[in-house]
Amino acid sequence: MSRKTKTKKSITSRMGSEYSPLQRAVIFLSFFIILASAVVSIVYLAGKNRGKEEAPTVPVPDDGQQQEQQPQEEEPVWDGISLQETEDAGEEYVNETLFLGDSNFLRMVGQGVLTHRNVIGKPGKGIQSVVADRDVYLAGYAEPVTAISALKVLCPRRILMNFGTNDLLGRVDYFIITYKNAIAAIQRAYSYADVIVMSIPALREDEYTGYGTLTMKTVDEYNEALKDMCRELEIPFLNVTDECLKDPETGFARSEIMYEDGIHIEANGLTELLNYYRTHAYITEDRRPIKQGSTYVIWSPAEPDKIDCSALLSDVSARLAANGYDMTGSSDEEGAVRYFYYTVDSAATDDEQDSYAADMVSYVNGSCSAGAKLRITWGDDGSGNHVFTIKEITACTEHEYGEWTVTVSATCSAKGSRKRTCSKCGHEETEEIDIDPQAHSYSWETVREATCSEPGEEKGTCTACGDVTTREIIKEHEPNVTQPEVPATCTQSGYTREVICSVCGEVLEEKKEVPALGHDYASSVTKEPTETEEGVRTYTCSRCGDTYSEAIPKLEPEPTPEPEPEPTSDPESGGDQ
Hints:
The protein is of the alpha+beta class. Helix content is about 30%, strand content about 20%.
């Protein structure tokens, strides 16, 4: 220690003697600058490293190639083509959908399953009409438009397409080409909606179709072509035919859900179809810049209407307003809703039109509450009649909500949502569900293959947040019976079976000796003994039937009774008296 101290002092002394005051000042200033730079660098690097630690890390693939960043919103669950079963997506999912198809969708309106608000359906409508025909009548529009043009007004979140029944007499390749063109036109005109293709509904047994040349074989061929088209275009496919409408035993549509013509679906079948749609949901981000408004679809007969229903509607509304009703009701308003329907003949005269207006006003006066808020709309029933829908809305003073129902499940990176409905008025209240850090969606890859004797391992990477986890892979033995069981008998030993794994040779069940069981005799008297002959007792084994006998001794003879002695005189009595 003393030597080191002296050396240090000597160095200091030399510095004082060899350098001038100015030089010493420059040296100390340089030293200070270097020290300050080092401190700043350390602080900067510490902050940078801390930022790296706070950011979630995404595993780099083993092949070294950079993958595209996964979207934060969880992708819909489906196998690449056919939509898989999900939780019930509810009424909101249906209301945000435009049902674009033929008479089966229109019949949903007639049966009360859907409304004119979001259905474009027409008897005999084929896939080619989507682009070519101006046959869609919209509320508030004087002239009909094509289905493509109607999309820009209706603003659906998704479009369910159902075409093919009216195209079965053509060629399947032409049908697919036309279908692709229709989808392309839809996506060009309104790119904010998801397109879902529904399978062509099943037919009843061929002889009952009413059209002779339409067969279930053709429907299946067309549906396979639709699946291939969806796979090519990366569009979801709703397989209602095989999974909802068909009888799996016959391969045809279930008779209880079909009309006798073999093509059209009855109300119970349409309800099942709609429920299937709700429970095989395809929900993506709502990309619409404008949500669906109050415009709804009206299907008009081929000939021009003789009744101007817009004028009739205005007439009825004015009369009801004069009677004290509030005509500002909206179908989107909260409130207890009652529906009334009034049918008008499309070929009525002007005088009959005035009579219709008077009848409707009288009908409402006798049915609705005084001063109630009303909404009246109208649409065509496809049979030459117009149906007016009269809705009474009575506001709830206090909602009575039921249980919450999850509409969109929360994930590790995205919030979900849930809703509850007022039992009095039907108003729906929605709220967000917080992100669930544990609700990962893992993509699994095998790290180590499992064997019969050693478990394997899988690594899962969450496609949303990059979380990594592992799980064990268990591979079961493949048993092979090399020695069958030999049951033991009364006199001979047996063996248990021997089972060995056919892959690794491990003995899964060892062969063991089972001792002989021995006889299990039960006895019975087969010959009763007598005083002169022995009897016989026979023993029989309950398992193998072996027998043996033994003698039963003769019965002892019964003893002969001794005679009673004769009476004698008493010697003390002195003889006879």
